[in-house]
Amino acid sequence: MKVRFSWFTPTNGDGERIGLTKPEREPDPDYIVAVAKTAERVGFDGILVPVGTPFLDSWMVGSAVVHHTSKIRPLIAIRPGFIAPALSAKMAATLDQFSGGRIDINIVTGGSPYELGQDGDFLSHDERYSRTSDFMNVLRKLWEEKQVDYEGPFYAVKDAVLIPRNKQPKIPVFFGGSSDAGKEVAARHGDVYLQWGEPVEEVRRQIEDVRARAGKYGRTLEFGIRIHVIVRETEKEAWEAADRLVSDIDPAVEQRMKQYYREADSVAQSRMNRLLQGDYRFDKYKWAGIGRVRKGAGTAVVGNPEQVREGLQEYIDIGVTHFILSGFPHLEEAERTGQLLLPLFEKNDSLQRQA
Questions:
Q1: For a 10 Å CB count at each end of the chain, is N or C smaller?
Q2: Is residue 241 situated within a structural domain?
Q3: CA dist., res. 207 & res. 187, Å (int)
Q4: Residue 114 falls within a domain, yes or no?
Q5: pLDDT tens digit string along 11-55?
Q6: 15 lies in some domain
Q7: Rounded Cα gap, residues 186 and 232, in angstroms
């Protein structure tokens, strides 16, 4: 199966250094569109539009990306609980029509009670995943059936009809969650199970677990990794860039992140936090230093092009076929990654087809 690569829209700011009190670059529309157009030009298949309190609205940004590109697939992250599933289905179907059938949806249940509370969501961890499952039931039925009657623990619709219909017969859904509740929702509703860039053996265990759970429902999933890359012509240059990236972290920002980590109820985040020790290095060419000031995806593959390829290949060898990459600043790093790294995988794909 072809390995697909996506990039990232930095909708909470960008720059050459992270952990500052204010980003070096604000996420204005021109910049966001420039990142998306660059990612499309250099060969990325998709681009993730994140969701959450610190980010711009994902639907608005996704629409801007759709209307300024022609091939790249926006992966639009949404949170159940803030918009009714019937309206979410309509918004997705409308944008799917506008894009010619090239959007994906990333369902994000949320792992921080504090951040969710800022938006008025106070459900417990397992209740959130139960609501997500109910949300997905309605979403799927509206995308795939002509008329829907449904009553669940959180949502109900009567004689529901989706107008407009989605362009794609089935809009692909990316989903992440490392708790038992999260993995059950992924197994039942997801198309791509998405993890952060954890150690390979941990990722393998998660893949095997979710694959077995999906099998109980007669389903098969694909698997993805969300991780940063710091790729340079030489290994020395790459590690110098990594050091420079975290060279001006504001102590107050790092302290706030430590507080966030203590309060989060995300199982995956707790595992990511354990990587923040020593020199932050693990596996082949991987580094967790970004996690000092960035929640969620806080790891990177660092090195020359062949080393970064090897670091990602570790995941491919255990069944990963989707990568959502990023780098700081995202405009220049999209260009660099497209020039130095993506051609190595295109060459491998060509050799495999010939074999």
A1: C
A2: no
A3: 11
A4: yes
A5: 999 999 999 999 999 999 999 999 999 999 999 999 999 999 889
A6: yes
A7: 35
180: domain CATH number?
3.20.20.30
Tokens 């050091």 appear where? 243
SS (H, E, C) the chain: CCCEEEEECCECEECCCCCCCCCCECCCHHHHHHHHHHHHHHCCCEEEECCCCCCCCHHHHHHHHHHHCCCCEEEEEECECCECHHHHHHHHHHHHHHHCCCCEEEECCCCCHHHHHHCCCCCCHHHHHHHHHHHHHHHHHHHHCCCEEEECCCCEEEEECCCCCCCCCCCCEEECCCCHHHHHHHHHHCCEEEEECCCHHHHHHHHHHHHHHHHHCCCCCEEEEEEEEEECCCHHHHHHHHHHHCCCCCHHHHHHHHHHHHHCCCHHHHHHHCCCCCCCEECCCEECHHHHCCCCCCCEEEECHHHHHHHHHHHHCCCCCEEEEECCCHHHHHHHHHHHCHHHHHHHHHHHHHC
Residue 270 to residue 273: CA distance in whole angstroms: 5
Neighbours of 226 (CB within 10 A): 23
Distances in whole angstroms, Cα of residue 306 to Cα of each of 64, 151, 191, 254, 342: 34, 52, 30, 32, 11
Q: Could you tell me the two tokens for 302?
A: 């660092």
**Sign (positive or negative) of CA dihedral 147, 151, 152, 157:** positive
Q: Report the number of distinct structural domains present in the chain.
A: 1
Distance CA 32, CA 37 (A): 9
C-beta pairs of 349-354 under 8 Å, 24+ apart in sequence: 349/2, 349/3
* pTM score over 0.85: yes
The reply to whether omega before 329 is within 30° of 0 (cis) is: yes
Band of pLDDT at residue 115, cut at 50, 70 and 90: confident
Full residue range of the structural domain in which residue 29 is found: 4-228+304-354
Cis before 80 (ω within 30):
no
